[in-house]
Amino acid sequence: TDRKFNFNPGPSTLPLNVLKELQNNIVEWNQTGMSIIEVSHRSKDYMAMQEETKKLIQDLYAVPDSYDILFLQGGASLQFAMLPMNFMQGGIADYINTGAWAKKAIKEAKLYGQVNIAATTEKDNFSRLPAADNIKLSDNPKYVHLTTNNTIYGTQWHTLPDTGARKLTADMSSDIMSRPMDVSQFDLIYAGAQKNLGPSGVTVVIIRKAWMEQARQDIPAIMQYKTHSDGQSLYNTPPTFQVFALNLVLKEYQKMGGLKKIEAQNKGKADLLYQAIDKQADFYKGTVTHKPDRSWMNATFRLPSEELEAAFIKQAAAQGLHGLKGHRSLGGIRVSMYNAMPVQGIEKLTQFMSSFCEKSKNSVSA
Ligand code: PMP
Question: pTM here?
């Protein structure tokens, strides 16, 4: 096909097999005589598919039975509000501020209690993660919140900070299921699907059931995790198409060999890209100042001038390398390379980077 290598940060590239399978089911799904977007969410077929999707997450991510998996709407942005609404109860929550998304989560939490900024790297323009010594947690917060991968700044926690016995919650929007993760360290995980899991419109929440039972009940039903858990994520009409797409993506991940294999591929792709940056360090400058914090999902770098960056993006697009413009708050280049980005995309990009660098240097010296 004429498909481009799509480096957009989200919505982002999905496996071609999944897109074809979606196409196959858009007119008739599962011999129901109806499209996947026409079937009732209360039909036996749909409910079985949604349960299977849950099971796929449980198996792939080794989610213990003491957790529930919910399919919600409103994106990660609704979770910024829903988490404190359910659990802060006027108390203190610790937030680690590693970027624009963490800041949005903090803003919402402040409406429901006292936020302790346990650490922030804002004065470094979020170009690194806080060092372990600089994280000052409260003694007894309602929970700790962190962002496992900072989509805009290209940092990712490769070793999680030690939060002791405190409840740990995480926005994993841009690296969920990119690597195996010990889910039992967390009390709540959330992620919009549109980077590593499927199309936008469905948000996956993994929540420890015992904690969910302690949540506030004097808030609207739709805002309570328990409502969705009790209703098997069918309290209101779920995003049926998105859940189906998620189901297909997860099956693809199974076929790819599971998350250990996927992690190895992601690391391989990231290594390739960072090597290309570092070996031409007089031209490409990685924006993450502490290299161990570099993200395997989103790599950010600058060129010697904004003019060269604009030319880089334009010429890359002409070669089928699409979506490389950095976030508007940071500028530069951002390469988003989620699970579904094939290694060939990174190979083609690194070849382009070498030739662009060489050409630019030659034109300056000419
Ligand atoms: N958190 C992170 C880490 C993100 O990258 C994004 C989206 N780019 C969001 C939250 C917001 O997600 P949504 O648009 O699904 O609300």
Answer: 0.97
